[in-house]
Amino acid sequence: MSDPLFRWTARGASLLFCLLFWQLAASLHWNLGLVTFANVPTPLSVLEAALGLGDLGKLARHLGSSLGRVFAGYLAAALVGVALGIAVGRSKWAEDLLLPPLEVLRPIPAVAWIPLAILMFPSSELSMIFITFTGALFPILLNTVHGVEGVDRRLLASAKSLGAGRRAILLEVIVPGAAPSIITGLAIGMGTSWFCLVTAEMISGQYGIGYYTWESYTIQNYPDIVVGMLLIGVLGMGSSLLIKRLGGVLTPWHRPRGNT
After folding, report:
1. What is the CA radius of gyration of the chain?
2. pLDDT tens, position by position, 188-242
3. Is 258 left (phi over 0), alpha (psi -120 to 50) or beta?
4. DSSP of 43-67, one letter per residue?
5. Which of 22, 115, 178, 250 could form a disulfide with 147 if both were Cys (CB 3.0 to 4.6 A apart)?
6. Is the separation of the CB atoms in 212 and 224 below 8 Å?
7. Residue 79 and residue 85: Cα distance in Å, rounded?
8. Would you call 62 exposed, middle or buried from its count of C-beta atoms within 10 A (0-12, 13-18, 19+)?
9. How many whole angstroms from its chain centre is CA 131?
10. pTM value?
11. How does pLDDT run across 9-32, given as a tens digit for each residue?
12. Quick one: pLDDT at residue 54?
């Protein structure tokens, strides 16, 4: 048996084991002390709810709202985070000026920004995009700074000795050298942007996966809660994998450790 086939078999077996455990725990109403499965829907009831969501046409509307918000905020965060990260990583002046306020803002969770975002922006749509932006910004920014600072100084010295200007050094040495760290930050930022968006939608949204999940809880439609959770997980995982794949295509010179 080849190694890739064995790995995919192991991954499939782990998913099947989780589904089996879920089915048994929910159907038999297991009570494990701190955790009880008395009100948890079974995988079959969740599947029925998911199929019904598609039949009613709700899925496209919720998905469209969430995807539009998350990609608007994420793209803005990618542009700002990479630009600021390069500036901070390259310039001590920019580091001293920009990094202290950014480090103060970085630990503030997304949910704490929601009341202020509602006051700052004229519509709830813009406030949710802003929350997504803040969630994605800091992973992208910090990974970009780390990548820029980690560029081999010998490469910079060699480029200068060959007569390269500041622009050429930036585009041909620093950006390619920092690209793996930047891509890692972009992938992490995509995941955190979904987390922050769902939090914002639960509080101030009218459509979206987060709003759908919270609404299902308030009306005690338990299978739909799990449908919303699984949609969030699949969308977050899929979009992060997409960023990693695109990054691999754009950085063919970089081979992660462990890959042959």
Report:
1. 22
2. 999 888 888 888 888 776 788 888 888 888 888 888 888 888 888 888 888 888 8
3. left
4. HHHHHHHHHHHHHTTHHHHHHHHHH
5. 178
6. yes
7. 10
8. buried
9. 13
10. 0.81
11. 888 899 899 989 988 888 888 888
12. 63
The confidence score (pLDDT) of residue 185 equals: 92
> Could you give the angle at the alpha carbon of 217 between the alpha carbons of 211 and 220, nearest 5°?
140
At which residue do the structure tokens 């299978």 appear? 223
User: Do 148 and 86 contact (CB within 8 A), yes or no?
Assistant: yes
The Cα–Cα gap between 106 and 82 comes to 16
| Distance, CA of 62 to CA of 141 (rounded, Å) | 30
Phi, psi of 152 (to 5 degrees): -60, 125
The amino acid that residue 68 corresponds to is: G
Q: Is the pLDDT of residue 95 over 70?
A: yes
d(CA 105, CA 113): 10
Name the residue among 79, 103, 64, 105 with its Cα closest to residue 208: 64
Q: Which amino acid is at 213?
A: T
Q: Do the beta carbons of residue 147 and residue 89 sit within 8 Å? A: yes
Domains of the chain, first to last? 42-250 (1.10.3720.10)
The dihedral sign for the CA sequence 172, 175, 178, 181: negative
